[in-house]
Amino acid sequence: MTESFYFEADQSKIIFPSDNNNIVQKNMGKRKVAILGFGGTIAMVPDSSGILKPAKSVEEIIAIVPSLKEMADVSFQELERRDSTNINPSHWTKLALKISEIQNTVDAIIVTHGTDTMAYTAGGVALALGRTLKIPVAFTGSQLPLIAYGTDARFNLENSMKTVLQACDSGIAEVMIVFSDCALRGCRAIKTSEAKFPAFDSPAFPHLARIDAVGVHFIADALQASGETADEIKPHFQRGILAIDLVPGLEPGILLEVLQSGKCQGLLLKSLGAGNVPSEEEYSLLPVIREAVSILKIPVLISTKFVGGQTHMDMYEPGKLALEAGAIPTGDMTDVMAQVKFMWALAQGNRSPDDLRRVINTDIIGEITA
Hints:
Blueprint: E1 6-8, E2 13-15, H1 20-25, E3 32-38, E4 44-46, E5 52-54, H2 58-62, H3 67-71, E6 73-80, H4 89-102, E7 108-112, H5 118-129, E8 137-140, H6 153-170, E9 175-179, E10 182-185, E11 190-191, E12 200-201, E13 209-211, E14 216-218, E15 241-245, H7 252-259, E16 266-271, H8 286-295, E17 300-304, H9 317-325, E18 328-329, H10 335-347, H11 353-360
Parallel strand pairs: 3-6, 3-7, 7-8, 8-9, 15-16, 16-17, 17-18
Antiparallel strand pairs: 1-2, 4-5, 9-10, 10-13, 11-12, 13-14
Helix pairs in contact: 4-5, 5-10, 7-8
């Protein structure tokens, strides 16, 4: 007698009677993965005029990728429906608190987020959670909407799921950015392209994992889950931080006016080199640094704009003079992470130059080479 069969739509496969037990058991034993929607291109659809706007719900969009539910026991929750340009530190706090709240109920978390500020949010969340994080968290997004032809959204979502599942098996608890064929440490990543599908890199730190046809391959330095309690979360960030790219001809008087307004709580100078700042004649910023640090009690940090670079402020005279004026170098942190950590460190009460210098140059979650 010929064996009968039927087609199961959601699995897209032929099921024979001998598989009946597998059908009943198909949702048992899977990892629980929460997908948190935070807006971005990946969750956008075009309106009647062709302008991309947030979709009605993340679940509506993610449902286009049924393979996610085949790989894990997936739940969805929409937290924000925003273009990432409009994400600010209060959203980092909101997301960190949500992750801390649910991390004991799921095995892993995927956050869908816009690419423009993803590195800022990933870095902020990583610092806020610190080593209290018990599970892997993967940020992902896309260069094209999920419904577009040739989109990278589906690929990135599936790779994110594969990455967090492998991280679970390996006991890894990191905040990551998963994009294209690699996973990056969130607090080391920067966006490097507005159009290329491999849109992120971590130039000063190795890729956390390589994703290929064989699987997901983590490096030995990936952070393992620690036993610290979740009540140590520090999810707040100082407002009033001014970050300035140093360019030839920058008027020191403009910076002084802002500093003297009483609204600035910290100044980050993104240097022209390894920590150098203009130090001669009318464009010298040394008086600005001295007044900020010594008179106004406003801390000044100096980072490098170079991709993969780091501050060596004792190498050249302009950098050494800035150090002597009271500026604090940020080592090999990205300029993105230097700003995020500056805001975070001040919010934890590190106001004195010695305390701030110590915290900025202490490796907390892999963001800096100590």
